[in-house]
Design brief:
Elements (H helix, E strand, L loop, with lengths): L12 H25 L1 H23 L3 E6 L8 E13 L15 E2 L2 E3 L7 E3 L9 E4 L11 E9 L5 E6 L3 E5 L5 E8 L6 E7 L10 E7 L3 E6 L2 E7 L3 E2 L6 E4 L8 E13 L3 E2 L10 E5 L5 E3 L13
Length: about 325
């Protein structure tokens, strides 16, 4: 039997499938190549990654975060850099709790309270001669230059004045007789010149006989207080927290003890992620700042403009 001859102008189904497959591969390669060489696609990916990282950190830790966009100098690339919070240490008051680093072990006084919020907690004992918790804070262990947040969980049992937290000369958190919080800060001015004093006071009292979470923070531009993730008060404060090389962080002073129980004290410091470079073709027209609140919601989202671009992105 003679094989059937194919018409000169036709293709078999197999040949068509092969051609379609080859074209699909070539098209995919060309699209990928164009994306790699498209500066706007690269820039949008870099910016989206840093914004997502800052937003997730804000949601996970319940603290504000931000992303800075800075133009390049002398022909260098523009940069995108997230400012995030890094956890330094958490004091959880569990019996016989050790630490891999001895510098993270505090000196404790007071009484152990097994039924705390997350396990064991701590209560000041009448007649104590030292703070409920005392922890050495050299800059090598706790660097406050870029700002900080301290978080603690409180269960207050009566209305009275008290010293809650302090790291002198940088800051002190006190409780007024009406259970309103007052935080005072001592900062070095911009450029390291002079001293800036700042304070912030809450108009809302802490709850009585109910667990609550308190944050006190300083980010170099403002200071604030928050309760259970809700901001209570904020004040402008431009400067770097003062810190001594032989300083101590203390909880509940013996002359003004906390009227209740404290559980899980946590320290965070602000730190910048490694700067991500934009394509050299994309130069930011100005410095831009994206900000997220403690819930990860955007509070500042500027329209970014590039040199030579009329509209925003």
């Amino acid at each position: 039997m003679q094989p059937r001859q194919r018409s000169a102008g036709g293709f078999t189904l197999l040949e068509l499938l092969v051609v379609i497959g080859v074209l699909s591969v070539l098209m995919g390669m060309s699209i990928g190549y164009l994306r790699r060489t498209d500066p706007f696609a690269i820039g949008n990916a870099v910016l989206a990654g840093e914004l997502r990282s800052a937003q997730l950190t804000a949601r996970a830790e319940g603290v504000p975060t931000e992303v800075w966009l800075r133009p390049g100098k002398d022909g260098e690339a523009s940069t995108v850099q997230a400012r995030l919070l890094q956890s330094v240490v958490a004091f959880r008051f569990e019996p016989n709790a050790g630490a891999l680093d001895e510098t993270l072990l505090p000196t404790l006084s007071g009484d152990d309270v097994p039924g705390g919020r997350f396990g064991h907690a701590r209560r000041p004992r009448p007649g104590d001669k030292q703070a409920l918790l005392r922890w050495p804070t050299p800059p090598a262990v706790l660097d406050l230059r870029d700002g900080f947040v301290v978080r603690c969980d409180l269960f207050l049992e009566e209305r009275t004045r008290a010293s809650v937290l302090r790291l002198l000369p940088g800051f002190e958190l006190q409780l007024e007789a009406d259970l309103c919080l007052v935080a005072r800060f001592r900062l070095r001015g911009p450029g390291g010149d002079g001293t800036v004093l700042a304070s912030v006071k809450s108009e809302l009292a802490l709850p009585l006989r109910q667990w609550c979470t308190v944050d006190v923070g300083c980010d170099g531009a403002s200071v604030w207080l928050s309760l259970d993730g809700r901001e209570l008060a904020r004040a402008v404060a431009d400067g770097v927290p003062q810190q001594e090389p032989d300083g101590y962080f203390e909880v509940s002073q013996p002359d003004a003890p906390l009227p209740g129980v404290i559980d899980e004290v946590r320290w965070f410091v602000y730190t910048f992620s490694p700067p991500q470079q934009m394509p050299v073709e994309l130069q930011f027209r100005d410095t831009y700042r994206f900000a997220f609140d403690a819930r990860g919601e955007a509070t500042e989202r500027p329209a970014v403009k590039y040199v030579g671009q009329e509209g925003g992105s």
